[in-house]
Amino acid sequence: MTAAESDAIRVIEAEAIPARFARGWHCLGPAEKFSDGRPHTVNAFGQKLVVFRGANGNLNVLDAYCRHMGGDLSQGTVKGDEIACPFHDWRWGGDGRCKKIPYSRRVPLRARTAAWPTLLQDELLFVWNDPEGNPPPADVTIPRIEGVTSDEWTDWLWTETVVHTNCREVIDNVVDMAHFFYIHHSFPTYFKNIFEGHTATQIMKGKTRPDIARPDAEGNTMLGNTSVATYHGPAFMVDELTYHYQGFDLESVLINSHYPIDEHSFSLHSGIIVRRSEQLKGPAAEVTARKLSGFIQRGFEQDIAVWRTKTRIDNPLLCEEDGPVYQLRRWYEQFYTDAAEVTPEMTGRFEYEIDTTRPVEAWTRETEENLARRAAEGQPA
C-alpha cells in the first residue's frame, strides 16, 4: 500500500434501503394478545394487517383494507368465524375469501383478499412473509421451546418497543462482541459465530465486570453468563441464557424478535421465561423473571440510543476482533433474494471464533482503572 493509499479518507457507503421485506416467519407476540374476540391492528411489511380469532378458535391475519370499498377491517367486528367490515358488513374468512354479504344474494366470485400464513406455537403467534407469495417450506421451522409448556418454568414476560431505524441494525449485533462491553457493560471472554442454512448462532461466555457488579437483594453476586443465541430465519432469535452464581445457575430462555413496520422502523420484542429451582421457588421465580425482563429492556434501550443517531453503513471499516460482519450480512441477504437466486455462499456453513486475548487484556485494564479511580475518590468499589 502506498502512502497516498494509506492516507486516503475512508468514505462511508450506504445504498438505498430495500423496499422489500425479509422472507420468513415473524413473531407478532403472545397469542393471548389477539385472542379476545376483537380485531387487532398490526402495521407490518409496509402495510396494515388485521389479526382476529374466530369462533372456531383459529387466529387469522388478513390485509386490513376491505376489497369492496376500502373499509378498515381492523375497526370492524368479529362475527362467528369472520371479520365484518365496518363500512358495509362484508364478512371475510380467515382464508381471505368473502363468505357473506348480508344485503346481497350472492358473493362475487373474485371477492378475495390476502390471507397470511400463520403459526401458533409456544403461545406465540407467527406470520409468514414472502414477497414471491410462496408458502413456508417444510424445512424452514421455528424450534419448540420446551419450558413454555412446563410448570418448571415461569410464564412469558413480554415487551414490545418501536424502533425508528432499519432492522438490519439489530441483526448486526449477532457478530458484534465489542459492543457488549461498551454499550451493555458486560465482559465477553469467549465469542463464536456459526451460520448455516437459515440459522445464525452466537455463542458467548462472559464474566461479571468488577467495576459494575453489585450483589442482589439476597447477597448473591453474579459470576458470569453463558449464552447460545440462534436466529431462526431473519427475525426470531432464541437465546438459551444461563447466569452463573456462587453455588448455582439460573437458567432462562430469552426471545429477541422483530417484524418490520416499514423500511425505516420495526417492532422489537423480547420475551423471557425462567426455570424454577431450589433457589427460585414459588413467587421468587416470577420476581426474578421480572428483574431479568427489566434488565434486558434496559439493554435494548442502550442499543436504541445508538441506533437513533448512527448512520447506515454498508462498508464498515473493521479490525480483526470485530467479527464476521460481512459474512453475517451475506447470510442475511438470502431473506431478501428470490428463493431461486439464493447462493451457497449465503447458506453454507461458516464458523468464526474471535481471539479474545487482546480484548480481555484491554478490558481488564479498564475495569481495574475504574476501580482504582473510585478508590482514590473515596467511592465504594
Automatic annotation (TrEMBL):
InterPro entries: Cholesterol_7-desaturase, KshA-like_C, Rieske_2Fe-2S, Rieske_2Fe-2S_sf. One of its GO terms (molecular function) is metal ion binding. Residues 25-127 form the Rieske domain. Pfam families: KshA_C (PF19298), Rieske (PF00355). Its cofactor is Fe cation. Keywords: 2Fe-2S, Iron, Iron-sulfur, Lipid degradation, Lipid metabolism, Metal-binding, Monooxygenase, Oxidoreductase, Steroid metabolism. GO terms for biological process: cholesterol metabolic process; lipid catabolic process. Homotrimer. The two-component system 3-ketosteroid-9-alpha-monooxygenase is composed of an oxygenase component KshA and a reductase component KshB. PANTHER family: 3-KETOSTEROID-9-ALPHA-MONOOXYGENASE, OXYGENASE COMPONENT, IRON-SULFUR DOMAIN CONTAINING PROTEIN. This is Rieske-type oxygenase. It comes from Thermomonospora echinospora.
